[in-house]
Design goal:
The chain is of the alpha/beta class. It has helices spanning 3-35, 40-51, 61-74, 88-94, 110-122, 136-145, 163-171, 199-213, 242-265; strands at 78-82, 102-107, 129-133, 153-156, 179-183, 217-224, 231-238. The radius of gyration is 23 Å and the shape is globular.
Length: 269
């Protein structure tokens, strides 16, 4: 194929991709009109984030609704979010909680934390949602060290280079049945490129490969397209640690064997 043919092919690929993105956005708008009714509180939260100059990287309305439905389906009472930004996804998650539920959301940027606190208060969720300021890795360690009770749902949506550490910290704050969701793990499909130099892609690949090695996790990845272009979530359910299960089984078998011997020794000769 000559240079001209190659350039023509590339041009048509770009046009095709642009058309596809227009279709994705149109479909997203259609779904939002059907299933995500206009919500002035959420709209105000996005507007406040924009006014504060925060990055426009919050989950989409449909994705926020998905997080809410998953939390409701789990009957979650305790939710942990890693990466708050302006609190948009935190509002969706906190709305799924019962009155005595609790959401802790971690944010490293003081400006974003202030915006999120104001947005959560405006949403009437200040009583159940707490924004903790500081490094997520440090805060996760502090939570575990303080004996924080396990969470039912954990949502990771922060700097991609830290995802592996955030998974390890999340596992220390989980229990069998906990759902762990991580956003932005498809990276426009570039996650498939093993030789990528992009730090976000490398961080996500490291996270996913580490995720796959966790024997106590059952995981999958769902690709998404729409107003947020091409990306996706990883979804994991925590099960029992196989090593812990084996140790428990050995203890049970040992105790059972001892009881059998004692019962036999009490039988008349």
């Amino acid at each position: 194929m000559g240079t001209r043919d190659t350039l023509t092919k590339k041009f048509h690929e770009v046009v095709r991709d642009l058309r596809a993105r227009d279709q994705w956005r149109a479909a997203d708008s259609y779904f939002e009109d059907l299933f995500v009714s206009g919500d002035p509180v959420l709209a105000a939260a996005l507007a406040a984030s924009d006014a504060a100059g925060l990055p426009t990287v919050s989950v989409s309305p449909s994705q926020g609704k998905l997080l809410n439905l998953l939390a409701v389906g789990l009957r979650a009472r305790r939710i942990l979010e890693i990466g708050t930004l302006g609190g948009y996804s935190a509002i969706w998650l906190a709305r799924a909680l019962p009155e005595d539920g609790r959401l802790i959301t971690l944010e490293v940027d003081p400006r974003a934390a202030d915006v999120a606190r104001a947005n959560l208060a405006a949403a009437g969720l200040a009583a159940v949602a707490e924004v903790r300021l500081g490094s997520a890795a440090d805060t996760l360690q502090q939570l575990a060290g303080a004996g924080e009770q396990p969470f039912d749902l954990i949502f990771i949506d922060a700097d991609k280079t830290g995802y592996r550490d955030y998974l390890d910290g999340s596992l220390r704050l989980s229990r069998p049945g906990t759902m762990i969701i991580a956003d932005n793990v498809v990276q426009g499909g570039y996650v498939a490129e093993a030789g990528s130099k992009d730090p976000d892609v490398r961080g996500v690949r490291e996270y996913l490969e580490h995720l796959a090695r966790q024997k106590q996790l059952d995981s999958t990845v769902i690709q998404t397209v729409g107003g947020k272009h091409h990306d996706g979530f990883s979804v994991s359910i925590v099960g029992a640690d196989p090593a812990t299960e084996r140790a428990h089984a050995n203890q049970v078998n040992s105790a059972s064997g001892k009881d059998t011997q004692e019962s036999a020794s009490r039988l008349p000769a």
